[in-house]
C-alpha cells in the first residue's frame, strides 16, 4: 500500500470569513479519496461479490489511480477544471455502472464550480447538488433503491444543515460523512431496485451496497481534506 | 380443495420474495388465519417444498424447490436447444450471452453464459427484466401480433435508468426498426454502463418463442454504433437456433 502523504494543515478549509477554497483543496480531496479507496479496495470488492460482479473496489481504485496521475501538473488549473478532469478519467477507466455514475457526478460537480479560482462552502453545496443530479439523471435511482444515492442524499442534506447552522467547512463535512455512513449502513436490509443486484431479488437483502459504501468514502475524503477530525474508516459489519 | 392449492402456491410465492417468514407474518400478508397457514406449511414441509429454520422458527423455501426449478429449466425446449449455440456465441464475441423468453410483461432469463474472461459474475438465470428495458424483450415484442404488441406498449413502462425508453410511441418506432436491423439494441436501459444486442428466435410456425443476445459494457458493444461483428454473430446464432426450433428457412428469411 502506498504511504499516505501527510499534507494535512497545508490546506486551510474555509468557513465564512475564512480563506477561500481553491485548487489545492480539491486536489487534496481527490488524493484523500484515492487513498481511502486503495485502503478499502478489498472490502469494497468483497461487498460487491455478494450482490455484484466483485469488481467495485478494483475498478474504482484503477480509475482513481488514473485520475490522480492525470492531475500531475494541474495545480494551476481551476478547481472546476480539476474536478471535470477527474470525472472524465473515471468515466473512461472505471467501467461498469460506477464509471459513468461517478464520472458524470464529478464532471457536473466541476462544471458547477465554473471557472472560479476560489470558492466557498456554499459553492461546494451547489456543486454537490449538480453532481447528485447528474448521478440521478443517469441512474434514475431514489433513496431506498440500494445505490450510491442512499448515502449521497443524506450526506448532502447534512452538509447543508451544517452550513445553515453557521458551522465551518470541517464541521459540516463531518456531519456529511456521518450521514453518508448512516445511509450506507441503512442499505443493508434493503432489496436492490436498481442495477444488476436487483436481479437477485430478495437475495440482495442483508448486504451493504458497495456504491453507497464508496460514496461514504467520498465524504470521508472531503472531511479529511477539510482538515476536520479524522473520521473513522467506515464500519465493517 | 382447489382454494387450498392456490393458498399454498401464494405461500410459496411469498417465501420466494423474502428470505424467510413466520406463520403470523404470512397470515397477515395473505389475510389467512394462523391455523390455516400453519396447516398449509406443514403439508408443504412434508414435501420439502418449504423448510423451517429451527432457530428462528421461521419458514423458507425448501430443497424440493431447487429440483423443481431445475426440472423447469431442463424441460425448457428453447433453453435446452440454446446451450451449445450460446456457448459458441459467447466464445466468438468474448462477451456474456443470455437467452430469454417473454413471461407476461417481463423477460425471464432461462440461460446465461458468462463472459469468458474468468471474472466473477452473477448468474442471471431466473432474473426477470421488464420487457421494454432489455434487448431480449424488444426483440420478441417486435415480432408479436399487433394486438399483443399494443398490449405490451399500453401497460406500465417503468424507468430503470435515465436511458430507459418509457414513451410508448418511441418504443413502438423502435420495435419497427428491429425488423429492419435484424437485431434489437439496449443502450444502458436496464443497467447503467450495460448494453445488449439481441435477435429473435422463432419456432416452426414463425412465432417468436424467445431471444438470444450478447450483453456487455456499452463501450465495447455500442461505441460507434452497434458492433458489426457482434450484430452478425447474434443474427447468425438466432437463425441457427430458430432452425433448430423447427423454423423453416423460408419463414425465417421472410422475417
Q: What's a quick, concise take on this entry?
A:
Chain A has 237 residues and is an all-alpha fold. Chain A is 60% helix and 0% strand. With 255 residues, chain B is of the alpha+beta class.
Strand count, sense and barrel status of the largest sheet of chain A are: none
> What is the number of E strands of chain A?
0
What is the string of helix and strand elements of chain B?
HHHEEHHEEEHHHEEEHHH
Give average pLDDT of chain A, whole number. Answer: 89
Low-confidence segments of chain A: 1-16
Terminal CA distance of chain B reads 47 Å
Termini distance of chain A?
23 Å
Helix content of chain A: 55-70%
Helix content of chain B: 40-55%
Most extensive protein-chain contact, per-chain counts = A-B, 27 and 26 residues
Shape of chain A: globular
Shape descriptor of chain B reads elongated
- The secondary-structure element order of chain A is HHHHHHHHH
Looking at how many chains there are and whether they match, the oligomeric state comes to heterodimer
Task: Tell me what you see in this structure.
The complex is a heterodimer of chains A (237) and B (255). By secondary structure, chain A is an all-alpha fold. Chain A is 60% helix and 0% strand. The relative contact order of chain A is 0.15. Chain B is α+β, with helices and mostly antiparallel strands. Helices cover 48% and strands 20% of the residues of chain B. Chain B is built from eleven helices and eight strands. In chain B, a hairpin with a 2-residue loop joins strand 3 and strand 4. In chain B, helix 1 crosses helix 3, helix 5 packs antiparallel against helix 10 and helix 7 packs across helix 8. Chain B is elongated. The model of chain B has no long low-confidence stretch (mean pLDDT 93). Classes of the chains: A mainly alpha (237), B alpha+beta (255).
Amino acid at each position: 500500500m502506498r504511504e499516505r502523504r501527510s499534507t494535512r494543515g497545508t490546506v486551510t478549509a474555509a468557513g465564512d470569513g475564512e480563506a477561500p477554497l481553491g485548487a489545492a483543496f480539491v486536489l487534496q480531496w481527490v488524493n484523500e479519496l484515492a487513498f481511502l479507496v486503495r485502503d478499502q479496495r478489498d472490502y469494497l470488492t468483497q461487498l460487491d461479490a455478494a450482490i455484484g460482479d466483485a469488481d467495485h473496489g478494483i475498478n474504482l481504485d484503477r480509475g482513481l489511480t488514473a485520475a490522480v496521475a492525470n492531475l500531475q501538473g494541474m495545480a494551476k488549473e481551476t478547481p472546476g477544471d480539476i474536478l471535470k478532469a477527474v470525472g472524465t478519467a473515471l468515466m473512461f477507466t472505471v467501467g461498469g455502472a460506477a464509471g459513468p455514475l461517478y464520472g458524470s457526478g464529478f464532471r457536473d460537480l466541476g462544471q458547477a464550480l465554473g471557472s472560479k479560482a476560489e470558492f466557498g462552502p456554499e459553492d461546494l453545496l451547489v456543486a454537490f447538488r449538480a453532481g447528485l443530479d447528474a448521478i440521478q439523471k443517469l441512474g434514475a435511482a431514489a433513496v431506498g433503491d440500494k445505490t450510491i444515492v442512499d448515502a449521497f442524499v443524506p450526506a448532502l442534506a447534512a452538509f447543508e444543515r451544517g452550513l445553515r447552522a453557521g458551522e465551518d467547512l470541517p464541521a459540516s463535512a463531518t456531519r456529511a460523512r456521518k450521514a453518508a455512513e448512516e445511509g450506507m449502513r441503512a442499505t443493508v436490509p434493503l432489496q436492490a431496485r436498481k442495477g444488476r443486484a436487483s436481479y437477485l431479488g430478495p437475495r440482495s437483502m442483508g448486504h451493504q451496497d458497495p456504491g453507497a459504501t464508496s460514496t461514504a468514502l467520498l465524504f470521508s475524503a472531503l472531511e479529511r481534506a477539510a482538515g476536520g477530525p479524522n473520521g473513522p474508516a467506515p464500519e465493517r459489519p | 380443495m382447489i382454494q387450498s392449492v392456490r393458498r399454498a402456491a401464494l405461500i410459496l410465492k411469498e417465501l420466494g420474495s423474502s428470505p424467510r417468514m413466520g406463520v403470523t407474518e404470512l397470515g397477515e400478508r395473505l389475510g389467512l388465519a394462523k391455523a390455516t397457514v400453519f396447516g398449509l406449511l406443514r403439508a408443504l414441509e412434508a414435501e420439502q417444498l418449504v423448510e423451517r429454520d429451527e432457530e428462528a422458527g421461521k419458514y423458507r423455501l425448501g430443497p424440493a424447490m431447487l429440483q423443481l426449478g431445475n426440472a423447469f429449466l431442463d424441460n425448457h425446449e428453447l433453453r435446452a436447444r440454446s446451450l451449445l449455440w450460446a456457448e459458441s456465441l459467447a466464445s466468438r464475441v468474448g462477451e456474456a450471452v443470455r437467452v430469454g423468453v417473454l413471461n407476461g410483461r417481463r423477460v425471464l432469463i432461462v440461460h446465461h453464459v458468462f463472459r469468458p474472461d474468468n471474472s466473477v459474475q452473477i448468474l442471471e438465470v431466473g432474473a426477470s427484466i421488464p420487457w421494454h428495458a432489455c434487448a431480449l424483450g424488444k426483440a420478441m415484442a417486435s415480432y408479436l401480433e399487433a394486438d399483443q404488441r399494443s398490449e405490451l406498449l399500453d401497460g406500465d413502462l417503468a424507468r430503470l435508468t435515465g436511458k430507459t425508453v418509457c414513451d410508448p410511441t418511441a418504443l413502438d418506432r423502435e420495435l419497427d426498426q428491429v425488423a429492419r436491423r435484424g437485431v434489437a439494441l439496449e443502450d444502458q436501459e436496464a443497467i447503467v454502463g450495460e448494453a445488449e444486442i439481441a435477435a429473435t428466435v422463432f419456432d416452426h410456425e414463425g412465432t417468436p418463442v424467445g431471444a438470444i443476445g450478447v450483453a456487455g459494457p456499452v463501450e465495447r458493444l455500442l461505441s460507434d454504433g452497434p458492433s458489426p461483428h457482434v450484430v452478425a454473430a447474434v443474427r447468425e446464432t438466432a437463425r441457427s437456433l430458430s432452425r433448430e426450433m423447427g423454423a423453416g428457412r423460408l419463414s425465417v428469411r421472410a422475417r
